[in-house]
Amino acid sequence: MKFFLLAIAAVQILHCSGVLSTKNALRASVGKLNEITEINNLCAVNGRRGKIVYRTGKLWYNVDLVFSVKETVCSKNSGLEFDDSSCHFRSRKNAAKGICKSSVEYFAGKIVDVDVECRGLRTIDSRSLESNENSIEMRARRMPLRQVYKRVKQVKRIVG
User: Fold this and answer.
1) What letter would DSSP give residue 91?
2) Helix or strand run (H / E) with residue 131
3) Structural element, H or E, at residue 102
């Protein structure tokens, strides 16, 4: 029990010190998404739905995110970042949209792996180099979100 509470305290300390940043995790997730989508323009975040930070090892942490994206007017070849002020969203009728979840793995405060899965966007399947209508799933050592939500609820009951 003491170890569990110490682990929670460590996560909070690291999170507050800026070592774990959900903003950086979101940026890395959208960057990875823009690498694997078939569309020619960048996608940008147009809504966040949730985030969970949890420890997976001694110096290992995961940040799980759920967010929505929409295609912008900026080309992937423009050299601009997806959050550049000139990259406005495309018109409602023409824009590609998706609901995404990602898991960003940190080791010692640095991002080491990003897994992204989106519904509604066409992506390139790196194994077969064919289109996948719904999503590409890049799986790593992570818990399903359902288990993570259960764990968070347990922690909330214990802590507060």
Assistant:
1) P
2) strand 131-132
3) strand 97-107
